[in-house]
Amino acid sequence: MTVPVDITDPRIAKAYAHPLRIHILGMLDDRVASPSEIAGELDAPLTHVSYHVRQLASLGLIKLVRTTPRRGAVEHHYTAQVRPKITDDAWGRTPEIVKKNIVSGWVQQLGAHVAAGAAEGGFEREEAHMTRSAWTLDDKAWKAISRELLKTLEKVEKLGSEAAERVKRDPESGFRATTVIMHFEGPATDAGLPEDAGIRRHKKRRSKVSA
Q1: Residue 74 CB: number of other CB atoms within 10 A?
Q2: Structure confidence by residue, pLDDT tens digits, 147-174
Q3: How far is residue 71's CA from residue 62's CA, in Å, rounded to a whole number?
Q4: Cis peptide before 171 (omega within 30 of 0)
Q5: Any idea what DSSP says for residue 59?
Q6: With left for phi above 0 and alpha for psi between -120 and 50, is residue 100 left, alpha or beta?
Q7: pTM of the complete model beyond 0.70
Q8: How far is CA 118 from CA 26, 121, 130, in A?
Q9: In a domain? residue 155
Q10: How far apart are CA 160 and CA 179, in angstroms?
Q11: How far apart are alpha carbons 160 and 198 in whole angstroms?
């Protein structure tokens, strides 16, 4: 289980100094993978990925889980030890260039993650949810929505932790799932979808079968 660490932690700041490390740390957040697997998924040189994996391991942000013999060599498999946590105050004090670096890496990862999930039928489950809501807000509403989303995130994390404990007792009952929460300013109407083109709740309805 990963441990939340504030972004002001010097180790996080050093990890985020390179875009590739952001990708690697994000990919290992909830899984185990080797540098060769990561390099293949990112279409990046294995030598570069291996170097940054070693850097993340030396910072204590990822840990070696197991080794596997591969054709005369040994493949190392890692997982994340920490999950970066960004408070409003810490984010406000983060330099703009670092913010752009972080957001760019996260958005790229998220896009690939959602696309892969959709291709595998990840939105076919009846309770699947996908919403895009565009508003014209003032500062009061912006902050109120942020507070509500934080409450939701805390509840989701609690439910996820409880589920993980149940799955430990019954591994066959578990399956991978992703919950994404975003709240951001913009874009301008002409830069994105029309304001009235919001995507609302999507559910696959079970067809009724007559007896």
Answers
A1: 9
A2: 999 999 999 989 998 998 999 999 999 9
A3: 25
A4: no
A5: T
A6: alpha
A7: no
A8: 19, 5, 11
A9: yes
A10: 10
A11: 28
- Return the SS3 of 73: strand
Quick one: 183 and 160 in the same domain?
yes
Using the 3D structure, point to which of 120, 138, 170 is the last residue of a domain.
120
CA 161 to the chain's CA centroid: 16
Strand pairing report for 82-85 and 3-6: parallel
Q: Could you tell me if 108 and 26 lie in one domain?
A: yes
Q: Is the dihedral of CA 177, 181, 186, 188 positive or negative?
A: positive
Q: Considering its fold, how many domains does the chain have in total?
A: 2
Tell me, yes or no, whether 113 and 135 share the same domain.
Answer: no
Q: How many CB atoms lie within 10 A of CB 22?
A: 22
Asked whether residue 209 is assigned to any structural domain, the reply reads no
33 in Cβ contact with 65 (< 8 Å): no
- The parent domain of residue 22 ranges over 3-120
pLDDT digits (tens, 9 = 90+) for 78-89: 998 877 677 777
Handedness of CA 59, 61, 65, 70 (dihedral sign): negative
